[in-house]
Structure formats: C-alpha cells, structure tokens
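Protocol step 4 of 5: obtain the predicted structure for the target chain.
Materials: sequence only (see below). No template structures provided, no constraints applied. The aim of this step is simply to have a reference model before the mutagenesis design in step 5. Sequence pasted as it appears in the construct record:
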Amino acid sequence: MEPLRALRGFRDLLSPETDIFSYIENAAKEIFKVYSYNEIRIPTVEMAELFIKSTGETTDIVEKEMYSFIDAGKRNIALRPEGTPCVARAFVQHKLNLSGKNSKFFYIGNMFRAERPQAGRFREFEQLGIEYLGNPSASADAEAIILLMAFLKKTGAKDYFAEINSLGCSDCREKYKKELLEYLKKNASELCQWCQNRIEKNPLRALDCKTDGPKLSLEAPKLSLCADCSTHFEKVEELLRIAKIDFKVNKNLVRGLDYYTRTVFEVKSSALGSQDAIAGGGRYDNLVKSMGGQDTPAVGWSLGVDRLAILLKDTITLKNNSPKVFVVCADKNAFNESFKILNDLRNGNISADFSNFELSLRSQMRSADKSGATLALIMGEEELKNSSCSIKFLKSEEKQQEIPLNELLKKTKNILNKENHP
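Step 4 output (structure tokens):
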C-alpha cells in the first residue's frame, strides 16, 4: 500500500525550518509593537465575494488561483488568498473607526492560492502584514515602508532593496485607462490570450501580466499624475529620505490588485532570482468604502515568510533547542526516582529530556548522545542506594561526577553555567 503524502504545493514544516519561521514571527511582533500595531486574527475562510469585489474579477488571484467552493449551506466560500480584504471587512463589521484608537493592525497567518508550485511559492504559504487605516497623509505611506525596512533589518536579512511608484488617484487612473486601452487595442494581436480577454474589463491588468508586462512597461503609455497625487508622492520620497531609507522610483512598478491607489512599493532581493519580491504593498483609499464602510484612507503591506526564510537560512544563527540535560535510568528500581529528577529539572527551568526508562543503559545513552544535550544524569542501583546521581559530560572529556540528590538542581545549574561560559 502506497503511503499517503501531502498534496502537491502543500508541505510539512519541520525543524530547523520551523525555528526560522518562529524567529521571523517573533522579530515581527517585536518591531510591530515599537510602531504601535496591534494583532488581528482573521478567519481562514471568507465569502468568495469578498476577494472578487476587492481584489478584482480580472486579477490572477480570482481568475486562476483562488481556492473557492460551494459549502453545505450553498454559499460560495474561499480560503483566504491574502489578508488585506479580511482586515478591511473586519474594520467595517466591528465599526473600528469608532474606537477612538489608531487603527493599526498586523496579522500573521497562512494564505492559499492554487498557483503552480515553485521555489519559495506554495499553495499554502505564510504571510505577515500590516494595515494602517484612517490616515490619508504621505506620512502613513512613509511609515509603512520604513516599518517594512526596519523589520527586515531586525531579522538580519541582507541584499534587499525598495522600489516605489505612484498609481495616482481614481481620476488619474481613469484618464490613463483610456490611453492604455487605445494602445492595447492597436496591439491586441501581440498580447497573450489572457490579456486579450480582459482588455475591455481592466486594461491596467495587462501591465501586471507575467507574459506581456515586461514589454508593455517599456512600450506602453506612461501614467501622468495630477497635481495632488504628484505632491503626495513627492512628500513620500522626502520623508523616506529623512528616515534615511534607500529606495528608487520605478515607474514600471504596478501592483497586481485592483484596490491600490497612489503609492505602491515592493522590496526585492537579487538572491531570490527572477521571483525576487519579498514583500509589497501600497495605499488603498477606496477599499473600505467599497465594502459598505465610511470613506477610509488606508495603506499596508504583506510579506511572504517562506521567501524571507530562504534569505535567512544561511545568514542567521538560531538558538539551540537541544535539551541541556538527558535523564537516564540504569536500573528498573530507579524508574520513579529518575522520573522525579526529570520533573524537578523542568520545574527548575532546566530543559531536560529522556527516552524510555525501560530500555537498556546502552540504548538510553545512545539517545542521550543524539539529543545534543550537554549532560546525562544517570540513576542506577548504586546511585539509588547513595541518594545521589551520576553526571556524565557528553560534550567534553571531563570526568564523571556523583552529586547528592538534595544538591542536584543547584549543582546542575552551576555546571551548565560553566559549560556555557568556560
């Protein structure tokens, strides 16, 4: 019988990968606290309509990648492909605009997209992100970018850089759509089938196409900003310079979701190859209102934890999770005392482990060696008679010692301190 396996594009995470993920999550929570962002935990399943209306009917996420299905209640539901629409929905549902507090949120959780699996891209993947709702100022855009760069610096990531652009307001975009549509119609025969099918629905989508986008970014008409959008973007640049953030303006940068307005940005790393984006985001001033809420300006970003983990894999030193002590029972009559020692160590905040006290001494010592522990505490017939415990050093040539049980916790701590700080 063939053993069951995880579905393609899904995978189990084991140590040390889980350690890297935990390291990233902890770094995120620490830096988010400094910037006064509060955690929000959003549902894994939402109504599919939420993502269709917000993300856009002609986006790749909705057209090709969203895990949606009809449930037992005849509802069209979806596994969340991203976090921003969920946070915006929660903001409206819980009337968070009336809280009187800064509406600054962060989330960490798994997302789902039925895209082709490749290096650093899975059908179930972890994202972390931030959303700042209620502030129309360029300072909010700048803060979001500064926070992203501060977080990456905190993780120890290297070789990353920021690119920014402005997509303008609704008026800028409507004017640009007409110019772009005219160009695309003239060159329709050179476009891929997906772009040909959605020219009329959303011509801007072609700029984000993986097939046609690179060519269009060079040859298609360029967006011209109105005076207000131009001033807003210039202020973002000025504030980033004040914060000493290295960035460059990329006029060809287009985020692939319909809700973005004005400032958009991405952070990339050349170490990731052609799929070089680690994180991205931007301003989305119309999303909350489109969900039935009040007119609420907002800005945010999300980051792929899987992709960042690839960057950090060889650059950070993770905390050693091996137990400090491994308890070994060398005599069946010492079973209960060995178990008591194990619990006393843990209650004394010393990490300790064991295998099976009923196995042979040789087998237990083999497990002790593999555990990575510094010390093995051995309870046998003689130790039981003497109310003592033998300490064997697993990582040094130091001679085995025998310690009275009533001093075991104190002396074990002293020995471990010496081993860690020789």
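Step 4 remarks: The domain at 325-420 is CATH 3.40.50.800 (Rossmann fold). The mean pLDDT is 89.
Proceed to step 5.
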